């Protein structure tokens, strides 16, 4: 592992040019593109024959997906012909596949990518480079966890090509803590996490007995891990206390008495501090100085006190460890989730909204049983008549906003429908006590789904907004999945089921077609 002191990417690549190809991890989509463009001004890695192979692969990809390099991706064609690429979630699936194929064919020497490239894709490199070891996690900037770092760093080293893998970290002088490096032995364990969603509660009530529900709530992985860690902490705490008790037996009877060399050494240091010019004028200082002098005037014990000193130092370290164990134990107990209480709260909410009566699922509950995203909101959009009464294009626009949280600077040109009725319904649900995370909806992507339903091309969708093409794909494909769930939930309501099926069929076309 090597450090690079806040260097530009051109300088970094120049320093590691003997250890390419490299995956250059960046924690911003825009920055992957910026750094790739910066590097392309100075470097061209491909020979003429390699450029021809890249051109052929790009042409084949464009034959399958016309307009692949349209819009903001025009410059990517030039980058790829220089052996430079970038990869992030904002790219279209076809473009991501092309970049991956070029990298796998060893025709990309430096790939700027976000951390998603390190998950589920087996593309090793000779080197991995970290643009930073700080990332935005949705709430604030923080350092990488050990497991995050090693997930990415582990891409360095190609079996059969490299004896060792090289990892480089670009250190920003503003954040010197980045030099506190990662320890593979301290990789954070994967934690179980059970979320009692409306669908979870409905499924338990509908399919499970009381005994099975109890077992599910009290014996899941999250509870097991939490209880095991609490028990482990209690065991270690007991061991620490026993060690402290045993070590204290090493002290002689004069410990902390006037003749104890350790106490006298401590008092001499205190005396020097009290004689400091800034302290000597404090009213309590003269009395304390006199007290220390009277103690030091008494005869000292003639011993080397090595045993006492060693025991004292070890006890000090153990006391600090004990404090950490107690703090961790309190934290675990404080944040331990009472899944029984969470389940009761969800059942109370569902009963209040008319989804259940006791353990019995009412029509709303039976519908939501087949919905797995924003169950309450989707169900109410159907049962309120908003979706049933809407024109197909309007229904497509409304459902596009399900579970969508727009970015701060995202812009989409308005469509024909204002979707105020959906916004009003959402506000009523919030007023009724439905938590905000169970009512996630935005009108912003609606005009894109509306235009796509009406036959717009993907290129026209791109002109209607400033979203990445990958995000547009995600919006339409996520809606197709929601429509499939609603269609399944419609059950015997044949007319509504057919209407939902027809909307899904219109959306599921061309570039965004979902192949299952």
Structural account:
Residues 12-205 form the Helicase C-terminal domain. By secondary structure, the protein is α/β, with parallel strands linked by helices. It is built from 22 helices and ten strands. The strands form three sheets. Strands 1-8-5-2-4-3 form a six-stranded parallel β-sheet, with helices on both faces. The radius of gyration is 32 Å and the shape is extended. The two termini are 43 Å apart. The model has no long low-confidence stretch (mean pLDDT 86).
What's the short version?
The chain has 516 residues and is of the alpha/beta class. The chain has helices spanning 9-15, 29-40, 48-64, 74-80, 93-104, 146-153, 198-207, 210-218, 221-248, 261-274, 285-296, 306-335, 339-352, 363-368, 375-383, 386-389, 392-400, 420-431, 446-453, 458-463, 469-489, 494-507; strands at 2-5, 22-25, 84-87, 110-113, 127-130, 134-136, 141-143, 166-171, 356-357, 360-361.
């Amino acid at each position: 592992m090597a450090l690079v002191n806040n260097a530009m990417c051109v300088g970094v690549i120049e320093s590691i040019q003997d250890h390419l190809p490299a995956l250059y991890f960046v924690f911003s989509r825009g920055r992957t593109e910026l750094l790739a463009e910066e590097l392309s001004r100075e470097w061209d890695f491909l020979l003429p024959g390699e450029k021809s192979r890249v051109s052929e692969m790009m042409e084949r990809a464009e034959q399958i997906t016309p307009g692949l390099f349209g819009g903001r991706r025009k410059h990517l064609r030039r980058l790829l012909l220089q052996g430079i690429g970038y990869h992030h979630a904002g790219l279209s699936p076809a473009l991501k596949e092309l970049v991956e194929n070029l990298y796998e064919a060893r025709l990309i020497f430096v790939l700027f990518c976000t951390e998603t490239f390190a998950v589920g894709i087996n593309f090793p490199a000779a080197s991995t480079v970290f643009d930073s070891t700080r990332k935005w996690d949705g709430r604030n900037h923080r350092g990488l966890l050990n497991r995050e770092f090693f997930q990415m760093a582990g891409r360095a080293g190609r079996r059969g090509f490299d004896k060792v893998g090289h990892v480089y970290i670009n250190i920003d002088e503003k954040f010197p803590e980045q030099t506190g490096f990662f320890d593979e032995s301290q990789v954070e364990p994967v934690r179980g996490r059970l979320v009692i969603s409306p669908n979870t509660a409905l499924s338990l009530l509908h399919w499970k007995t009381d005994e099975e529900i109890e077992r599910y709530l009290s014996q899941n992985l999250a509870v097991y891990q939490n209880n095991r860690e609490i028990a482990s902490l209690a065991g270690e705490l007991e061991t620490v206390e026993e060690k402290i008790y045993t070590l204290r037996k090493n002290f002689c009877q004069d410990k902390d008495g006037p003749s104890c060399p350790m106490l006298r050494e401590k008092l001499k240091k205190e005396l020097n501090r009290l004689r400091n010019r800034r302290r000597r004028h404090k009213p309590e200082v003269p009395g304390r100085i006199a007290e220390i002098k009277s103690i030091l005037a008494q005869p000292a014990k003639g011993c080397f006190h090595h045993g006492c000193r060693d025991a004292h130092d070890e006890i000090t370290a153990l006391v600090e460890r004990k404090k950490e164990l107690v703090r961790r134990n309190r934290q675990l107990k404080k944040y331990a989730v009472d899944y029984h209480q969470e389940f009761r709260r969800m059942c109370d909410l569902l009963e209040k909204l008319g989804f259940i009566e006791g353990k019995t699922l009412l029509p709303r509950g039976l519908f939501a049983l087949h919905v797995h995203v924003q169950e309450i909101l989707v169900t109410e959009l159907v049962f309120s008549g908003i979706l049933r009464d809407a024109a197909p294009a309007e229904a497509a626009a409304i459902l596009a906003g399900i579970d969508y949280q727009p970015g701060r600077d995202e812009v989409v040109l308005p469509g024909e429908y204002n979707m105020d009725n959906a916004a009003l319904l959402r506000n009523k649900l919030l007023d009724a006590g439905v938590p905000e995370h169970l009512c996630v909806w935005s009108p912003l992507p609606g005009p894109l789904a509306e235009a796509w339903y009406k036959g717009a091309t993907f290129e026209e969708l791109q002109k209607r907004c400033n979203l990445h093409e990958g995000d547009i794909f995600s919006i339409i494909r996520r809606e197709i999945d929601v429509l499939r769930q609603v269609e399944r939930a419609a059950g015997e309501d044949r007319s509504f089921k057919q209407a939902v099926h027809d909307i899904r069929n219109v959306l599921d076309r061309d570039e965004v077609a979902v192949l299952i």
